[in-house]
Write a structure and sequence with these properties.
By secondary structure, the chain is of the alpha+beta class. It is built from 14 helices and twelve strands.
Length: 531
């Protein structure tokens, strides 16, 4: 069972801002962004020597030029960013390890040796072998440098994003001018965020939003002269009203429960947005048997669609296959919208049919996207790299929780293979076309229900009746030993030898000539004397 989400975030646009409002927001964002950059530099310089004392010293320095709440938000964001860079560094080292192991294995094999399903074979020519040996030396050098940085606690972080930084050298390809890029770069490095505080007025003292949508900001000490209200606060002319989860947000701020806010500028559209986020209490996940009680929908994730099939609680397919298509080309926003729309259609269909859970594959292509494993298969590498497995699972879990649906993650091993082998052909009819992906959805749903994926053939009856027992393809969840298919009993021609060369039962000796088989030839022993 996949745990339900523990956080909520909603966003609304800040409309009808005056030039003075925008000037204040830009000044506050630039000032606090400079403080955040300096704090991140100090944190990276500390490395593994970071402690509670160094944290307190950094926070005291920031408090003098801002406020205690802003200083706490900046240091917390700095620690989160440093921890993320540390995790990415560890993942990079693991990827280098996998590439080095693969190259060493393939270089140790003779030229032209064929590989297996689990391991690649040798290289095809001496030229390729030489180039891969050079790449192995390069990866080993990178691995040594990465391990040294890891042990020293040194990370590399770019506030604003490394991709946007590299775009500065390719403005023509990106379709940007230097001024537009500079505006976007500065906006990404601003810091206009505040953590929530339970017990404070409306759940946040730094960025406060009243129930009627009025937004006010606590200005830092150097910018206190820009305040237009009491206590060094600036009130914006824009009003916000969250259409999505607005009632839940209003309940929290009315009870003075913590709500975090973030203000950011979309330079492409020239619009300001306010994002509100808060934590939810941990919800106890329902038992797996309860989620299986009303059936399951098995979903097979593909490069351009979801292949879904409904199954009852016994694992029997119900109805026909359903496909929910999406397009993963274009910008990141377009891809995210396509995934969201496809999941919306899937969840709405699950609600109409009345199932209690959705079964998905626990996909992770981290070890499958390496250049060393699929060097020539560029199309395949692009295919698996384009499937947003992490974002897909996060989206599905959060959206399904709102509709009261549970999500069951299963092992993806052999789902496509066994689904096509055992379910594609039996369910194909003149009016129902089954694909390999549809059959994989059935395999995923059966595995989520706890049933075996592979079907069992019925034993041969003694006659036309069912005295041998009505044994269909359904097997009990616990009987894993009977999961395999049964070979037909008539697997050899009449009178031919058994397939394994052994008889299941030794023939008995014939007492009379009449009992002997007709093909037997009698030979007279020449040494036998007859009277």
């Amino acid at each position: 069972m996949v745990s339900a989400p523990c956080g909520v975030a909603v966003r609304d646009r800040l409309k009808h801002l005056t030039p003075q409002d925008e000037g204040v927001l830009r000044a506050v964002g630039a000032h606090q962004g400079t403080l955040a950059s300096g704090d991140l530099k100090t944190r990276c310089a500390n490395g593994l020597e970071h402690s509670a004392d160094t944290w307190a010293a950094r926070k005291r320095e920031l408090t003098g030029v801002s406020s205690s709440r802003i200083a706490g938000a900046i240091t917390k964001a700095t620690h989160d960013q440093w921890a993320l860079a540390r995790r990415c560094q560890a993942a990079h080292i693991q990827k280098l390890d996998a590439g080095i192991r693969t190259l060493r294995h393939r270089l140790s094999l003779p030229l032209g040796e064929k590989g297996t399903k689990r391991e690649a074979g040798g290289y095809r020519s001496k030229n390729e072998w030489f180039r891969k040996s050079r790449r192995l030396a390069m990866l080993e050098e990178r691995h040594t440098a990465a391990v040294a940085e890891w042990q020293a606690g040194r990370v590399r972080v770019v506030r604003g994003g490394k991709r946007l930084l590299n775009t500065r050298h390719h403005l023509t390809q990106a379709g940007l001018t230097e001024d537009r890029w500079r505006e976007r770069w500065e906006a990404e490095r601003w810091f206009l965020a505040a953590d929530g505080e339970s017990g404070k007025r409306f759940g946040n003292e730094t960025i406060r939003v009243t129930p009627d949508g009025e937004v006010s900001i606590k200005l830092p000490a150097p910018l206190a002269h820009l305040a237009n209200t009491r206590h060094g606060r600036y009130t914006l002319t824009a009003r916000v009203g969250f259409a999505h989860r607005g009632a839940e947000w209003a309940d929290r701020i009315t009870a003075n429960r913590a709500v975090a806010y973030r203000i950011h500028l979309d330079t492409g559209r020239g619009r300001w947005y306010l994002t509100a986020s808060w934590q939810r209490p941990v919800i106890q996940t329902i038992p797996l048997e309860t989620a299986r009680a009303r059936g399951m929908i098995g979903v097979d994730t593909n490069a351009d669609h979801f292949a879904a099939y409904r199954l009852d609680r016994h694992g029997n397919p119900v109805g026909g296959p359903h496909r929910f298509f999406y397009d993963l080309s274009g910008s990141a926003g377009h891809r995210d919208a396509q995934i969201r729309h496809a999941l919306t259609r899937l969840i709405n269909w699950a609600g109409r049919v009345g199932v209690g859970a959705i079964g998905i594959e626990d996909l992770d292509f981290a070890t499958e996207k390496t250049r060393e494993k699929h060097g020539r298969r560029k199309r395949f590498r692009q295919l698996i790299s384009g499937i947003p497995t992490g974002k897909l699972k996060a989206r599905l879990v959060s959206m399904a929780a709102e509709q009261g649906l549970s999500v069951v993650a299963v092992d993806p091993a052999y789902t496509s293979l066994w689904g096509a082998q055992h379910w594609q052909k039996p369910l194909t009819t003149p009016r129902r076309k089954m694909s390999r992906h549809d059959a994989a959805g059935i395999a995923i749903g059966r595995r989520a229900l706890g049933h075996p994926v592979r079907r069992r053939t019925a034993p041969p009856p003694h006659d036309r009746s069912d005295r041998a027992g009505h044994r269909t393809a359904q097997a009990e969840p616990g009987n894993r030993g009977r999961e395999g298919t049964r070979p037909p009993t008539t697997d050899r021609p009449p009178g031919g030898p058994p397939p394994n060369g052994k008889r299941k039962r030794e023939p008995s000796a014939s007492n009379t000539v009449r009992d002997a088989p007709s093909t037997h030839q009698w030979v007279q022993d020449p040494l036998m004397r007859t009277g």
